[in-house]
Write a structure and sequence with these properties.
Keywords: Membrane, Transmembrane, Transmembrane helix. With 195 residues, this protein is mainly alpha-helical. The protein is 69% helix and 3% strand. The protein is globular. 33% of the residues are buried.
Length: 195
């Protein structure tokens, strides 16, 4: 099933509220990939603090588990028991679907070894670096390239498209350079002001 189909199926789960644990269970072997996409999506638009920070921290938590080779993501029981209102989930999926279906037109299984079991720890490292970049990204717009990169890597994992994963890594490198440039400008300005 494609990413858009998985998200539509999630939005169609029964109940007024859907527990995070139910969502993770429904994702099965694609849980990591979809979690990465879901954590990247909010950062593809200008978002106020602390959204990039929270997404970055949770993403880093997920990435460390990928890095250590866990087959399925572990989340604390307190988080698994938390639930999302059906209207909010449906609205978020509806917003994401146009972009996802557009990307899916160009995506197909290619360079599948980049999404294979042996590549997951390496991708965990890539996502961890992007997550750390999100944590320190410039407010409002600094997280956009990193959010886009995270989504592309996650989509590449779901679609088993190594080309998308590579594009995501390249976009992430650009995003990290922009964040580093922003941080350098801030520290230079502070240095000149006080020294």
């Amino acid at each position: 099933m494609r990413t858009s189909g998985l998200l539509t199926a999630l939005a169609g789960l029964p109940g007024e509220r859907i527990a995070v644990g139910t969502i993770v269970a429904a994702l099965q072997d694609r849980a990591y990939a979809l979690l990465v996409v879901l954590l990247g999506l909010p950062n593809c638009l200008p978002m106020p603090p602390p959204i990039p920070l929270v997404c970055g921290l949770v993403l880093a938590f997920v990435a460390v588990q990928m890095l250590t080779g866990r087959r399925m993501p572990w989340l604390p029981q307190a988080l698994l028991k938390r639930s999302i209102g059906k209207p909010e989930l449906t609205r978020a999926v509806a917003r994401a679907l146009p972009a996802l279906t557009w990307l899916e037109r160009f995506s197909r299984p290619r360079l599948t070894m980049l999404g294979g079991a042996y590549a997951i720890p390496v991708l965990g490292l890539v996502i961890l670096i992007l997550a750390l970049g999100l944590i320190v990204a410039a407010p409002f717009i600094g997280q956009i390239p990193l959010g886009l990169a995270v989504c592309l890597v996650g989509l590449g994992l779901v679609e088993r498209d190594g080309v998308l994963i590579i594009i995501g890594a390249v976009v992430g490198a650009v995003g990290l350079l922009l964040s580093a440039g922003f941080a350098y400008a801030i520290f230079s300005g502070i240095h000149e002001l006080f020294f």
